[in-house]
Each structure stands twice: as C-alpha cells, then as structure tokens.
Amino acid sequence: MGDRGEEEEEELQMALRMSLQGSPPAQQPEPKRSKPPPPPAEEGVAAADAEAEARRKQRELRAAAAEKRLRAVAPSPAAAAPRPPAPEVVAREVEVEVKADPGPSGVSMEEAKAEEVEEEKGERLPTDVAEKLWLMVFGNKLEKEVLAQWSNQGIRFSSDPETTMGLVQHEGGPCGVLATVQAYVLKYLLFFSDELGNPEVSDPFYALGQRRFYQSSFAARDDFSSLTDDRKIRALVHAMLEILFLCGTGNRAVVATIGSVNEAKTAAVLEGLSVDSAMDLQKVLRISTFTSRKDAFNSLIANISLFESRLGAMLFLISALLSRGLERIQADRDDPSLPLVTAPFGHASQEVVNLLLCGEAVSNVFDGKVDFGGGMFLNGIPNDVEVGFLTLLESLNFCKVGQYLKCPKWPIWVVGSESHYSVLFALNPNVQEENELEERESKIRRAFDAQDQSGGGGFISVEGFQQVLRDTDINFPSDKLEDLCNAGIIVWSEFWQALLQLDKRAGGMKDPTGLMGKKQFTIYHFNGIAKSVLNGNANIGGSTIQRPRLCKLNVSVPPRWTQDEYLADVVSASTSGSKDDSVLSLAPPVQTSQHAPLVDCIRTRWPRAVCSWVGDMPSIV
Predict the structure, then answer these.
(1) Which of 171, 276, 369, 400 has the highest local Cβ count within 10 Å?
(2) 439 Cβ partners below 8 Å, 6+ apart?
C-alpha cells in the first residue's frame, strides 16, 4: 500500500506541473518524499488531519486560480492538461516549483494569484443597502443634470504651477466634498510635508504633538510649484484616510471602489460605465472595511487612479457615509427625510461638509446641542476639529458658527457661500494665537454660548446671564446690571458693548491704550472651480485658459474700539486745539482697504479685519 500511495502522489505532481506549464515535465524524476511519521496520540492525528485538510484546500484554491489565469492566456486548449484533484499531501518540492515557475505566458503562479485576488477584492453591497444609500444621497426625484455632476468629478490636482497644490473642480455639485478634502490636503502639505511616508501621520494623537511643535517654530513655505506628484498624492491619501477614520469614530474606514478595476484598467472599465440608479451602483460597487490605518493607506494608494477618475468624488462620499454607517448618519441629522445632495443644483449639503469635518453628519454649525424642550434637540459640532469652517451666511445673520469651527487646530477653513465652497488658509499657525484681550473675549463668549438656547440667536435669559457673570468674574455696577436685565433677555451685542466700557479690574474689556489686540498677517484663498483667466499679454496674442484661483490677502485687525469711544477721542482732540496728539495716536491707522464677500467671511473670525490684495478680487462663487 505504501508503494502505491507514493506512485499516485508522483502522478499527481506530474499532472499539476503539466497544467501549469502546458508541456510535459522534465525527464529527470522528482525526488520522493517519505511519509510523515504518525502522531503519537489520537488528538495529534486529528490535529494533523485538520491541518492537512486546510493545506489541501489552500493549495487547491491557489492552483485553480493559477489555472484560470493561464487558460486565459494559453495559445490553444491543448496547451493545458486537465487538472486532477489536489492530493491530500503534496511534495514540498512541487509546491515551491508551482509558486515560482512561470507558464508559457511568462506569468508566474504568484502573479496569477495576485491577479485573481485583485479581481475579487471587496464585497458587494446588499441590494437593500444600496437602495437606502442611493435614496439618502440623491432622494427620489433625481435630476439627470445633478447625477451628471456627481458622475464626472474626480479628485485631481491642478496642472497649473501656481495652483498645483489645489484640487480642480469642473462640476458645480461636489464642491463641498472637494473643498473639505482640499482643506485636509493643505494640512499635510503645509505642516507634515516631510512625514508623508508614515501612515500613522494621519492619527490625530500624532498630529497633536506635531501641532505643538509647528506652532512654536515652523511657518510653511508658499512655493507650491516645487511640490512633487508623489508628495501631493501622499498628502491626498493621508487626507482621505484621516477623514474616513474620523467618520468611523477612529475604529474603521470603509473604502468604496469599482469591481475589476486596477490602475491599468481604470479608463477602459469606466469608459462605458453608467451609474444611473441604485441597481447600477450595486452591480459595480465593492467595499472593503479596514481597522488598520496602514492597510487602509495601502488600499487608497492602490486605488488612487479610481478616485482621480470621473467617479472619484462620488466614491469618496460613499466611502465616508459607509464608514460612519447609514443608521448613524440618519440619527445625526435634524431631518433625515431630505437628500444629502440638495436640489435643484446638486450641491453637497451642510451635513456632508460637517461629516467630513467632524465625523458626524449634523445639520448645524454651532457648538454642541441645543435643547428646545420636550425631548427635542438640534445637533451641532460635538468637539474640536482639525480644519474649520466659515460662512457668508453668518455675516448675513442666517446662522452662527461656533468656536469649534472658527478656531480649528490648524489655520485652514472651508468657506461657504450661498452656492459654493472654497478654502481659506494661512501658512503659519500663529495667526490663531490669542493675546490677552482675545483670550478674555473667548472665555466670555464660550460662557455666554453655553447659556444660549436660541440655536445661535445670540441672546440668553436673565438666569443664564447671572451664571455667565459668575463663571467669568464680571462685576457690573448695580445700575448697569439693571439696565441689561430690564428686557428679560440679554443680547450678546449689548452685553459686549457694556463689557467694552467696563474696566478690566471689574472683569471688563476696557483698554486704555487702545493697542491690545492688533494683528497683521497674510492669508490665502483657493477656489478650485476652473475659471477663464488670461495666459500672457492680451496685446501680444495671450490666450484664455481654464484654471483654479489662488489669491494672497494681507489682513490687518485693528485694536478693539467702540464707535462712541473712537468719535469721542477724535472730537475731544480736535476741539481742544491741543498740540498733544497722544489721544489721536491711539486711533487705528488709516489703511488701504478692499472689499469682497470673502472679507465678510473673514470678519466673522476676525471682527473689523481690513483686507487688501493684488489683482482680481477673490471669488467665493
């Protein structure tokens, strides 16, 4: 029996080699392998049998994958012999040869196995989940124009040297996704440029330590034209990785891709691909879930050509939603019946932007929750964020952005207008450092906002006001306190004016010198939507090209003054006829000021900021 078993084993080895090589095996016989010694006990026998069975199945699957690959490239059916069932135990020499020896096409077993694994990577979404996802994003009244915007927007860098660090937007709808990803990309390009090879750099705890270092000793350069493609791609992958793990509460990231697509095949597969419904999406979408940042980083690197393709923005939005979980997404929102892509122009909703900024798809931009009583809450931003958010709507009194978004960990902000999102950033984190006056104001404002139950309306009750005074050690004279409380509510603007007239020793903000709080710094605005600009001199045949816009702004924040104080000082000095100009010297210097809607956004972060720039006005639309 033993001789017969060895003969069968030898025949199986030869058949397997023929199936892989498409030709008879070499004439030299394979060395025989003696049987393994029997285990000493019954438990050992069972364990050995189980291990052998596992090895047998693994080898069988490996051989089947290789044979499938080789059949596809073989010149004729006769080149491959039928593969018999894999033996229970295969000689180690055969296993090594199968792994290393290429077939007639020059494709090794290992390469064929890698190809097979690549084609089958990721899981399909269940049909009901795909339908729920589609309805959540686009609603049940999807316009073709809106779908076209989201089906034709990749996440790609600008080829223009001046804006090479920026992502180009060609369609109107996905700007909320692109601008937020752009903000994170700038974080890595400006402040982590030398550490982009480390997958752990996107971990918030790692970034926290680096932030302390850079705030004290580092100012990023603005020579964006020197950025290499590799550095930009790694910054993009780190940005995507951080956002996805943020959405997955730090525990997981889901990467959505298209089945049977690799870097070489992306263009060919997507050329005729149409995703017009939930069923179309379900057929082609593949999802992979990662708990390791390194594995997720490698997956994103491997699929970067897919995210750069025309489906890139949509795939990344789906990845973020699935990382958070569809049930959690709906629980975050004030009104989960509305689609995340808003009608009629297909813009990403504020909930999408908030999801990518803070990891939760909340509907509001104030800090924390607002309790309206009766168990009704409105959800805002839950905690500190890496990059922030400013909006023109606040300057129009339509909303109130909280301190979490206004004062992010890094000096980078997504900027919202009525119809578009762009990015504002500084090269030096020191622009966010607060002086004594600003720290005092921030403390008082946080205490006031904690008592504000109006959803950012800027007023509190008398009881809440008393708590603010206790928390911030403010002591108003009794007559002033009575004036503030007469109406039954206290409005922030009136409270602030009273603080500016209250001496610092009583907890107020009155500054006899008028110089505290003055700032000067440079800030940049990037609008990723491609617009027509003149390339060269129009008088000598310059041409018009499409490219994003980068604008450098000089910002000066004057000392804090009330209008009454300023006029009183000027009038007093002019009517006295005094040669002493010490009072007038305290007034803010006259500066060249330019105005644009972006300036109104900047002033929601730095009140009374004076801005100037060279060239065209910065655009937030």
Answers:
(1) 400
(2) none
Residue whose entry in the numeric block shows the structure tokens 């080829």: 159
CA distance 482 to 513: 29
Q: Any idea which residue has 């007639």 for tokens?
A: 104
Report the pLDDT value the prediction gives residue 278, as an integer from 0 to 100. Answer: 92
Distance between CA atoms of residues 248 and 355, nearest Å: 10
The token duo for 35 is 């049987």
CA dist 381 and 357 (Å) reads 9
For 319-372, the DSSP string reads HHHHHH-HHHHHHHSS-TTS-SEETTTTEEPHHHHHHHHHSS--S--SBSEEEE
Distance (Å, whole) CA 101 – CA 55: 20
User: Do the bridges between strand 388-391 and strand 412-416 make them parallel or antiparallel, or are there none, so unpaired?
Assistant: parallel
Q: How far apart are CA 83 and CA 75, in angstroms?
A: 18
Cα–Cα nearest to 277, from 135, 145, 150, 124: 135
d(CA 58, CA 39): 22
Residues 6+ away with beta carbon under 8 Å from 541: none
Number of neighbours of residue 467 by Cβ within 10 angstroms: 15
In what helix (H) or strand (E) does residue 15 lie, and over which residues does it extend? helix 2-21
Q: 3-state DSSP helix/strand/coil percent for the chain, to nearest 5?
A: 50, 15, 35
**Structural tokens at position 579:** 């040669």
Do the Cβ atoms of 562 and 500 come closer than 8 Å?
yes
Instruction: Tokens for 118, please give them.
Output: 């690549």
Choose among 386, 394, 345: nearest CA to 365: 394
Which ranges in 473-551 belong to alpha helices (H)? 478-485, 492-500
Are the CB atoms for 444 and 474 separated by under 8 Å? Answer: yes
Q: Quickly list H helices, 74-91.
A: none
Closest CA to 171 of 535, 421, 424, 338: 421
Q: What is the mean pLDDT of residues 297-310?
A: 94
CA distances from 303 to 233, 239, 258, 415 (A): 11, 15, 9, 29
pLDDT band at residue 141 under the 50/70/90 scheme: confident
| C-alpha distance from residue 563 to each of 32, 442, 575 (Å) | 99, 21, 18
Q: Nearest-5° angle of CA 398, CA 402, CA 403?
A: 145
Q: What is the mean pLDDT of residues 511-523?
A: 75
Q: How many CA atoms does the CB half-sphere of 263 hold within 13 Å?
A: 7
Question: How much of the chain exceeds pLDDT 90, in percent?
Answer: 48
Q: Using one digit for the tens of pLDDT, what is the confidence trace for 566-598? A: 444 444 444 444 444 433 333 444 456 789 999
Phi-psi region of 91 (alpha: psi -120 to 50; beta: other; left: phi over 0): beta
361: nearest Cα among 394, 387, 335, 391: 335
The DSSP element (H or E) to which 243 belongs, if any, is helix 229-247
Are 424 and 406 spatial neighbours (Cβ–Cβ below 8 Å)?
Answer: no
Separation CA 397–CA 425 (nearest Å): 24
pLDDT value, residue 536? 56
What are the structural domains of the chain?
123-431 (no CATH), 436-506 (1.10.238.10)
The predicted model gives 216-221 an average pLDDT of 50
